[in-house]
Write a structure and sequence with these properties.
single chain, alpha/beta, 7 strands, 28% helix, 7-stranded mixed beta sheet, globular, Rossmann fold
Length: 203
């Protein structure tokens, strides 16, 4: 999966145990949740754990994913937990055509799946849906993670370059992705794949 994955790859991963579907948000999103103020878009929300965590804290949250199966599971979790989150099947590379606007966007492992051309479309869409002064909280695989399994590795320079026009990169910190235990098809660094956690403001 070191090449850019296609839709069928994600569908097959969700048919089993998707490595990133750990039943809770990644830790940096929990740690940074107090920095969030206002409405939230969870781009590439998967089965909704981060979105529902934020909804439980009183935020107005919309989660999007381009696959129907994780959105179906996210809606079921919202009902089971009695939380008012909205979940939509939507392509994150087509946000530029969307009329909704948000105070914050969170990206837990989406940015790193895109090709260069799709990454450009994604960032242009984010610039459209995120209000001026709003923040993007982004977690992606780091180029410090060895090997080629899993998604593309991303350098700090790539993050700065992607968000060079109309954005301010406020911080980039080292972190780790927690992944599902007992993964059979993937081998990552002990303690979880190395990642970047970036906070980026729309000017």
């Amino acid at each position: 999966m070191s090449d850019v994955p296609d839709k069928s790859t994600f569908e097959s991963l969700y048919a089993g145990q998707a490595p990133w579907d750990i039943g809770r948000p990644q830790k940096p999103f929990i740690d940074e949740s107090d920095q969030i103020d206002g409405s939230v878009l969870d781009a590439g929300c998967g089965t909704g754990d981060t979105a529902l965590f934020l909804a439980s804290r009183g935020y107005k949250v919309t989660g999007i994913d381009f696959l129907e199966e994780p959105i179906r599971r996210a809606k079921r979790k919202a009902l089971e937990q009695n939380l008012p989150a909205t979940f939509l099947v939507k392509d994150a590379t087509a946000l530029i055509a969307w009329s909704e606007r948000f105070d914050n966007v969170i990206d837990s492992g989406l940015f790193h799946v895109f090709s260069d051309s799709d990454r450009k479309k994604y960032v242009e869409g984010l610039a459209t849906v995120l209000k001026s002064g709003g923040r993007l909280f982004l977690m992606c695989f780091s180029d410090e993670e060895p090997g080629t399994q899993g998604p593309r590795r991303v350098s700090q320079k790539e993050l700065h370059d992607a968000f060079s026009d109309g954005w301010v990169v406020e911080s980039i910190k080292t972190s780790r992705f927690k992944v599902a235990p007992n993964l059979k098809d993937f081998t990552f660094s002990e303690g979880g794949p190395k990642s970047w956690f970036a906070v980026i403001r729309r000017t």
